[in-house]
């Protein structure tokens, strides 16, 4: 939440307004809004996964509040690639207006369309590929191939009367990619010659020196780990990480093993990738999970979700002995993904749980089983030198990543006054090659909790944290409606306390005395009496038990 909200002035004709709605100061919820001459373009619409201090939350969406009255002005949503942090919120946006066109590559749209089918939404979509240009309202879009940890990723160049913007999406510069699809630096150079007025660039690895290692370096490691595993192998990764699954399929095939996919999203995404030709499945390698139990333990690999310690994902359920696959002595578990900031504790709990069950757990801390999908500092320097952009807004990352990216830009000669650090809701205006900060919107978090969207508040989450950390006490009291005298109670019941309810016998006389005093002063309103009970009991519990539980007093008149 911004410290200071500054409403931007009305937008002048011919000026491009750029508003990051999500993805700044966080790893996820990537979404940027572009506006010119009354029309809006959205680039990406992703989700953020909850952290431990957000109990019960399934997903966190960008705040669409700024858009609600302007949905008819949206010409399209451009999706740079198919990861959840870039496409996961699309169903929730299309529930507000179902016919917003979706623009993206073949694999990206296939993944989002499968997701929309579950929400019973039939989208209007436009499939594009690198080198293609499309004119959508006042926006002239050109799509450029970039290399990432999922095939078919695209950067997008946005040309308007106000100037040229290049938004990278997530990318890296793997020079020997598994699919042979390089980040198109020749096109970057051509755009640099044309003149990039604003460069909006992925910051996730900006604080990592050097270059991101090659994806293909993981293959031999996976092959070695699987070869020396005496029993079952379970590999956990993101459900859309096609390149990682490809390497697991190859390593399993090399070692005479078959592979079963676990998790609904994993099965759905890899089926789509295989059907479209993005996943090369060796003949006979894939086996249905239901038949995998008939295969000897030393001849099977399970490919699952849950690499981030998500409570309901396959790997966490295995660690908690809540899955049909009972992990035991001799099994090998490979966590083949990065740690999203905020998920570290959950992941290490899963690692500990699996280790206690006897598994050998292999992760990026003890073996090279993951490389990032994001450009490190050396790659970003190349981009700045090739493009020589007039202005830079680092995006996609926590604040330290944005700062590191801005410093890289300045190291290549981009003036500090043309390098802008923003947060979600910062309003940037571009005109005549100059970027100015025009305001700051008040954007919050939109929580998805089961079927509830946007109704859970920070206050609700605070209540949940109190319940989980401090416990719960209920008090029931019946008072005479005329005199205010206590007739029945107080009956006190606690949950989440080590102490027996008998410990509260000492405070009951204090509650009765406080109510008598309130009645003496003419207080009869049950809500006011409940506040009296809350203050008296809360003060006692804090002093005596050193706790601040949730207190729910109920005063009934009789």
TrEMBL record:
Keywords: Cytoplasm, Endonuclease, Exonuclease, Hydrolase, Metal-binding, Nuclease, RNA-binding, rRNA processing, Zinc. Transmembrane segments: none annotated. The gene is rnj. It comes from the Bacteria. One of its GO terms (molecular function) is hydrolase activity. Belongs to the metallo-beta-lactamase superfamily. RNA-metabolizing metallo-beta-lactamase-like family. Bacterial RNase J subfamily. It holds the Pfam family RNase_J_C. Its EC number is 3.1.-.-. This is Ribonuclease J. It is an enzyme of class 3 (hydrolase). The lineage of its organism: Bacteria, Bacillati, Actinomycetota, Actinomycetes, Micrococcales. An RNase that has 5'-3' exonuclease and possibly endonuclease activity. Involved in maturation of rRNA and in some organisms also mRNA maturation and/or decay. It is found in: Cytoplasm. The keyword Nuclease applies. Homodimer, may be a subunit of the RNA degradosome. Residues 28-222 form the Metallo-beta-lactamase domain. NCBIfam families: MG423. Substrate binds at residues 370-374. It comes from Agromyces indicus.
């Amino acid at each position: 939440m911004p410290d200071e909200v500054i409403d931007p002035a009305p937008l002048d004709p011919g000026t491009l307004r750029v508003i990051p709605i999500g993805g700044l100061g966080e790893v996820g919820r990537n979404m940027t809004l572009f506006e010119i001459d009354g029309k809006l373009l959205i680039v990406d619409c992703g989700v953020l996964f909850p952290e431990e201090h957000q109990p019960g939350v399934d997903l966190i969406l960008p705040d669409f509040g700024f858009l609600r009255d302007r949905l008819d002005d949206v010409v399209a949503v451009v999706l740079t690639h198919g990861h959840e942090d870039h496409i996961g919120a699309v169903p929730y946006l299309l529930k507000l207006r179902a016919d917003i066109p979706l623009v993206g590559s073949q694999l990206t749209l296939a993944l989002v369309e499968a997701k929309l089918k579950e929400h019973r939404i039939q989208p209007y979509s436009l499939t594009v590929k690198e080198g293609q240009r499309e004119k959508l309202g006042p926006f002239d879009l050109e799509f450029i191939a970039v290399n990432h940890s999922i095939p078919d990723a695209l950067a997008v160049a946005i040309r308007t009367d106000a100037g040229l913007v290049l938004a990278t999406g997530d990318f890296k510069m793997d020079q020997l990619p598994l699919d042979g699809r390089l980040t198109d630096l020749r096109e970057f150079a051509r755009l640099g010659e044309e003149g990039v007025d604003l460069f909006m660039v992925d910051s996730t690895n900006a604080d990592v020196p050097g270059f991101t290692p090659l994806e293909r370096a993981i293959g031999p490691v996976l092959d070695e780990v699987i070869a020396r595993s005496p029993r079952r192998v379970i590999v956990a990764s993101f459900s859309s990480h096609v390149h990682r699954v490809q390497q697991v399929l190859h390593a399993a095939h090399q070692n005479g093993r078959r592979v079963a996919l676990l998790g609904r999203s994993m099965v759905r995404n890899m089926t789509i990738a295989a059907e479209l030709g993005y996943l090369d499945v060796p003949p006979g390698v894939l086996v249905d999970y239901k038949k995998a139990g008939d295969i000897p333990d030393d001849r099977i690999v399970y490919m699952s979700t849950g690499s981030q310690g998500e409570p309901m994902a396959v790997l966490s359920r295995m660690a908690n002995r809540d899955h049909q696959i009972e992990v035991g002595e001799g099994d090998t578990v490979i966590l083949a993904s990065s740690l999203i900031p905020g998920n570290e504790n959950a992941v290490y709990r899963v690692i500990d749980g699996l280790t206690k069950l006897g598994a050998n757990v292999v992760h990026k801390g003890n073996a090279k089983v993951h490389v990032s999908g994001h450009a490190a500092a050396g790659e970003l320097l190349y981009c700045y030198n090739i493009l020589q952009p007039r202005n830079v807004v680092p995006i996609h990352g926590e604040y330290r990543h944005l700062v590191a990216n801005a410093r890289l830009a300045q190291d290549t000669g981009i003036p500090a006054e043309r390098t802008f650090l923003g947060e979600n809701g910062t309003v940037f205006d571009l005109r005549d090659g100059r970027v100015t900060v025009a305001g700051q919107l008040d954007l919050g978090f939109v929580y998805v909790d089961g079927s509830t969207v946007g109704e859970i508040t920070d206050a609700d989450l605070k209540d949940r944290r109190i319940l989980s950390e401090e416990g719960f006490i209920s008090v029931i009291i019946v008072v005479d409606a005329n005199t205010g005298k206590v007739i029945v109670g107080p009956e006190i019941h606690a949950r989440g306390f080590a102490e027996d309810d008998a410990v509260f016998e000492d405070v009951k006389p204090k509650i009765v005395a406080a109510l008598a005093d309130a009645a003496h002063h003419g207080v009869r309103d049950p809500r006011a009496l409940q506040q009296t009970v809350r203050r008296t009991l809360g003060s006692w519990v804090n002093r005596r038990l050193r706790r601040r539980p949730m207190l729910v007093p109920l005063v009934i008149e009789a």
